[in-house]
C-alpha cells in the first residue's frame, strides 16, 4: 500500500508507518448493546488501582468492541460539592465564554453517576463547572482552557485510551531511546495513569505529572508526584527538582494556545542529552476507498475542525511537531505516523484489535468531546444530540473504512559540545 495522502496539501514528514489495512470481507456484527455509553460504569479506571501487568485470567475479551476487565471498581457514595453558578449562590461567575465556546454554569448538584470514586480510581475536582446544557463537568476556564470534560466518566475513558495507546505502541509506554532516567515529567498527565505506570516500571526515577485538573489518585507510588499547573503559562519550578531526563506529552493537540511555548520550556528544563516525546492524534479521518464520503462521521470531523478554528485552537498541530522541535533546538528528531482504525474493519490482527478498542473509545467519548465545540459551531443542543446519535451509528459500521493519524515524535536536547559550547568527550 502506498503512503497515506493527507488532505489540504500537507504531508506528515518522515518515517511513515505503511501498513496494508485490508478490510474484512464481512461486516462485523457490532451491536450497540456492546458499546458502553459515556455515563456507564467502566472498569478502565481500575487500571490505576490494580497491578499493571494484569494476569491473563483477569482479562475477558467478551463479545463487545473493547476488551473488558473482570475487576470492576466499586461505586462509592456520591461526592457532592457546590459548583460555581450564575445566580450567585456559590462563588458567582458569569457564563464562561472563550471565542464562542460557552459554559453555562449550573446550580444543580453534580449527577451521582458522574461522581464515582474509589481508591486509585476516578475522583471529582472541586471547583469544576457543570454545564447546564450537556450535563458534564468541565475545568473552570478562569485558570486555563481545556475544551473537554474532566468528570469521572471522562477519566474512565482516558484510562481506556491509555490502554489503546499502549496497544498501538506494542505495549511500550514510550518510544524515545531513554536510558536510566532519574527525573521525568509528564505534561498534561490527566488521570496520571501513564506517570504511575512509568514510576512503577522505573522505581529509581522521580516522576512528576502536571495538569490543569488535580484528578489523580492520592495513593500513587512514592516516586510519583502530581502538581496542578498550567504548563503553558506557569513557570516550571518544582521543589528539589533537577533538570529532567525525559519530558513526555500525550494527546495535547487541544491543550495549548502555542505548543512552541511548552516545547521551549521542555528544552530549557531538560538535561543535555535528555529526550522529549509526544504521542498525539487529530480528528482528521483518513480513508482510501471513499467509503466515508457523505457520512455523518465525515461531517463530524469537518465540523470539529471548523469549531476548533473558531475557538482559536488548531487541532491539526501534530503535523507541525517535528519542525517545531527542530526549530526549538532538538536534534535526532524522529516522526512516526501511523493509522488508528476507527473500528475493527482491518484484517491485520493488531489493527483489527486496535479498531475494537478505538471504536469503544470513540463511541464513549463522542458526546463529551463534541458537545461544547459543536455548540460553539452554531448547532443547538437538540441538533447536537441527534447528530451524535447518527455519528455513533457510523462509528460501529465496519463498512466504513476510516482511520485517524497517530503521531509519535521525539527528539534529544544536544550536548553542549554539539552546539560548539564545549569540548567533545574522548
Please, how many helices?
7
The biggest beta sheet reads: 7 strands, mixed
Query: In percent, how much strand structure appears in the residues?
Result: 15-25%
Poorly predicted runs are 1-21, 24-122
How many beta-strand runs? 13
Per CATH, the architecture is 3-Layer(aba) Sandwich
Reported by name, the CATH topology is Rossmann fold
Question: Rg, please?
Answer: 21 Å
Number of domains: 1
Fourth CATH level, the homologous superfamily: Vaccinia Virus protein VP39
Helix-strand sequence: EEEEEEHEHEEEHEHHEHHE
CATH class, named Alpha Beta
Mean pLDDT: 74
Q: N-to-C terminal Cα separation, in Å? A: 46 Å
Describe the global form.
globular
Main sheet strand line-up: 9-8-7-10-11-13-12
The quaternary state of the protein chains shown equals: single chain
Structural class designation: alpha/beta
Helix content: 10-25%
Structural description of this entry:
It is a single chain. With 426 residues, this protein is α/β, with parallel strands linked by helices. It has one domain (7-78, 147-419): Rossmann fold. The protein contains seven helices and 13 strands. The chain has a seven-stranded mixed sheet with strand order 9-8-7-10-11-13-12. It starts with 58 loop residues before the first strand and ends in a 14-residue tail after the last strand. Residues 1-21 and 24-122 have low confidence and may be disordered.
